[in-house]
Structures are given as C-alpha cells and as structure tokens.
Amino acid sequence: MAEKSQDPKEYVTVAEFIEPVFAQMAKGALESAGIESFLEGEHGNSLLGPAFWAHLQVHRQDEEAARAILDAADASDDASTAELDASDTKDNQDDPI
Questions:
Q1: If you ran DSSP here, which 8-state letter would residue 39 be given?
Q2: What angle do CA 10, 13, 14 make, to 5 degrees?
Q3: Burial readout 56-87 (b: 16 or more C-beta within 10 A, e: otherwise)
Q4: Complete DSSP assignment for 44-68
Q5: Could you give the count of Cα atoms lying within 13 Å of 7 in the half-sphere of its Cβ?
Q6: Pairing outcome for strands 54-59 and 11-17
C-alpha cells in the first residue's frame, strides 16, 4: 500500500495548553522566530475553562523547529524555577526561626 505524501503546509499540533495565557506566550515565541502558528480551541478554553485545551499548531514543515523552540523555552523556565527555589532555600536558612 502506498504511503500518502504529507503536505508541508498541513498543520500539526506541537503543544496543548489548558491556560490561555501560556498558549499565547508559546505562540508569541514561535512567531518571534518567524514560524507561522495558530491556536485551535483558544476561545472555547476561555469560555469553559478546563473543558477545552488550546492546541498550538504550525505547518508540518516547521514542526521540528517549533518543537525545538518550545523545548528550549520549557528548559529555560525549569532552570529559572530551580534558581528561584535555590534562592528561597538559601534565604530561609539565613532567617532565624
């Protein structure tokens, strides 16, 4: 059976978000890198909260680059959180009980 050729302009989901603000931030990161994207289900999420997830989509041809950008942003967020946690722990050790 022959495989269907994949249209590079076809959209694929690269991330899902329950919080609209995080979806918008990720969309902005992709667009600032020159990757066209859109959010599917964005408005349903705003209306009904956790009933719908917003799906961040890009053209199939941009999928790998988009995932790399989102992964780098996620890793950066994790590092920032770890730094804040370490700073809070150090600050709390200096405080008398």
A1: E
A2: 120
A3: bbbbeebbeebeebbeeeeeeeeeeeeeeeee
A4: HHHHHGGG--EEEEEEGGGHHHHHH
A5: 5
A6: antiparallel
- Which has the closest alpha carbon to 29: 79, 80, 76? 76
d(CA 71, CA 79) in angstroms, rounded, equals: 12
Q: What is the pLDDT of residues 4-22, one digit of tens each?
A: 557 777 999 999 998 888 9
- For the stretch 26-44, pLDDT in tens is 999 999 999 999 998 765 5
How many Cβ atoms sit within 10 Å of the Cβ of residue 36?
13
Q: At 81, which amino acid appears? A: T
Q: How far apart are CA 4 and CA 20, in angstroms?
A: 34
Query: Can you tell me whether residue 75 is helix, strand or coil?
Result: helix
